[in-house]
Amino acid sequence: MFNTLLTDFRIIFDRDPAARNWLEVLTCYPGLQALIFHRLAHGLYSLKIPFLPRLISHIGRFLTGIEIHPGAVIGQGVFIDHGMGVVIGETAIVGNYCLIYQGVTLGGTGKETGKRHPTLGENVVIGGGAKVLGNINIGNNVRIGAGSVVLRDVPSDCTVVGVPGRVVYRSGVKVNPLEHGSLPDSEAEVIRALVDRIDSLEQQVESLQGKLSQCLVVNCDPPSSANYASCRLQD
To answer: Under a CB-based contact definition with an 8 Å cutoff, are residues 87 and 107 in contact?
Structure first.
């Protein structure tokens, strides 16, 4: 367990540019503190010791704002950044080197028993406020955009955004997990397509108006309204 906690500690310096020294990380990073409480509680939970694991988990939640059930399995090098409001359910599995932001829920979808929470692969990034619900599998190197709600399995090397979550990007190329600004904006793409369509229709209307004006000038004797009515559109 010590080596795992050491990896949890070191990964913070790799992923958070605000981390300056070891004392600051130990005392001011609730994500690391929550993992320390959890790894102790999970060890006792694995030994089937009653009550005490849940009590330790509850104390950790009170002190950090992060709720991790002692039954959850969390790999090494996991970084919970900011952390307030994170909830990780009893049967959730989090792979090595995952990055989880504030407000994330790894939860269930009902009152079923057994495996009912998500399984995350390695190097998964979950943006702030995202919800991953149910007994689903999230592949390696997956990025889930902030505020997304994921209810289905996601293959490896994909980017998921939206409510409900949908895959909008597939690639085997690894990306920097801190570059949230590079997530594709599917809503913006739809709006851009609509704007392009409107521009095309406006050009067609202007073309038809030009032909109509030309017809009126060539075939009509102004200003009689009767003559206007008798005009025919010519190509």
So the answer is: yes
Which band of pLDDT confidence, cut at 50, 70 and 90, is reported for residue 110? confident
pLDDT tens for 125-136 read 999 999 999 999
Are the beta carbons of 135 and 113 closer than 8 angstroms?
A: no
Say how far residue 202 (Cα) sits from the centre of its chain. Answer: 37
Question: Shortest CA distance to 31 belongs to which of 70, 63, 73, 71?
Answer: 63
**Domain 2-183, CATH among 3.90.650.10, 3.40.50.300, 2.160.10.10, 3.30.565.10:** 2.160.10.10
Give strand ranges (E) for 82-144.
87-88, 93-94, 99-100, 105-107, 119-120, 125-126, 131-133, 137-138, 143-144
pLDDT, one tens digit per residue, over 15-29 is 888 888 999 999 999
The whole-model pTM stands at: 0.71
**Region label for 227, one of left (φ > 0), alpha (ψ between -120 and 50) or beta (otherwise):** alpha
